[in-house]
């Protein structure tokens, strides 16, 4: 009977609220999963930095490549942390959307009408462009339109809403700060060793060895991102 009634009259406000909350919970679980994965990636990247630093100190023949690796892994760690901060911000936004949606339905129950919310539109608009949530957030935005909480689809960017960018160059200062945090008193030694490296061309055998090391390092980075 309920399905027949929904077919002719559409879902009730309670059903709309339940569906919106279910989609919000789904998005929250997705964010929690990605945050947990990033935590593991950060742990692995820290270990790679430590391992590369030890190799630079113990094996003179691999010193050049190992020092390059510590900096490359430090840059990767900065990106992981930036991504982690972005996901935590998105989770807070999602909690805000949930509160505003429930408040809108509560007002509808009391006053018999619902008010559109520009605040929800702005936050959903930001979240719908998050790669991790794009599909499910579009579904949520459609439900919010049907419920009358937002006036239109949120595909277009609202004024003052800026897309968060991940592509930026990590400064040398940021890299040294990360290395100092992880390696502590080992950092000055690594930095000094880098300045002491010879600038003369290396032998062909060293070139081959470094190419193989770089390929191995790229594979490890890809495995971390995976």
Describe the structure.
With 226 residues, the chain is mainly alpha-helical. The protein has one domain. It is built from 8 helices and no strands. The chain is elongated and about 75 Å long. About 16% of the residues have low confidence.
Helices and strands, in N-to-C order? Answer: HHHHHHHH
Query: What do the pLDDT scores average to?
Result: 76
Number of separate structural domains: 1
- Percentage of β-strand residues: under 5%
Structural class, by secondary structure, is mainly alpha
Determine the N-to-C terminus distance: 48 Å
Count all strands and give the number.
0
Please outline the major beta sheet. none
Number of helices: 8
- The rough form would be described as elongated
Helix content: over 70%
What is Rg?
25 Å
Which spans of ≥5 residues are poorly predicted at pLDDT below 50? 4-8, 156-165, 187-208
Main attributes of the structure:
mainly alpha
Concise summary:
The chain is mainly alpha-helical and 226 residues long. The protein has one domain (9-225).
Would you spell out the secondary-structure blueprint of this structure?
Blueprint lengths: L1 H8 L3 H46 L4 H49 L6 H11 L5 H14 L24 H12 L3 H10 L7 H22 L1
Protein name: Snf7-domain-containing protein
Organism: Microthyrium microscopicum
Pfam families: Snf7
């Amino acid at each position: 009977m309920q399905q027949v009634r929904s077919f002719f009259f559409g879902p009730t406000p309670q059903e709309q609220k339940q569906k919106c909350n279910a989609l919000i919970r789904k998005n929250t679980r997705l964010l929690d999963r990605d945050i947990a994965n990033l935590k593991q990636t950060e742990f692995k990247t820290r270990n790679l930095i430590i391992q590369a630093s030890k190799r630079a100190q113990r094996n003179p023949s691999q010193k050049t490549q190992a020092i390059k690796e510590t900096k490359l892994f430090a840059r990767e760690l900065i990106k992981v942390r930036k991504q982690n901060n972005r996901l935590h911000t998105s989770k807070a936004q999602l909690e805000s959307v949930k509160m505003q949606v429930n408040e809108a339905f509560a007002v509808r129950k009391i006053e018999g009408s619902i008010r559109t919310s520009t605040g929800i539109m702005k936050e959903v608009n930001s979240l719908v462009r998050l790669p991790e949530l794009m599909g499910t957030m579009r579904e949520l935005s459609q439900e919010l339109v049907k419920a009358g909480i937002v006036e239109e689809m949120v595909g277009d960017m609202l004024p003052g809403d800026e897309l968060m960018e991940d592509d930026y160059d990590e400064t040398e200062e940021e890299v040294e700060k990360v290395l100092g945090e992880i390696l502590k008193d080992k950092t000055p030694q690594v930095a000094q060793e880098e300045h002491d490296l010879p600038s003369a061309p290396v032998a062909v055998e060293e070139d081959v060895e470094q190419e193989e090391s770089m390929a191995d390092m790229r594979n490890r980075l890809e495995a971390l991102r995976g």
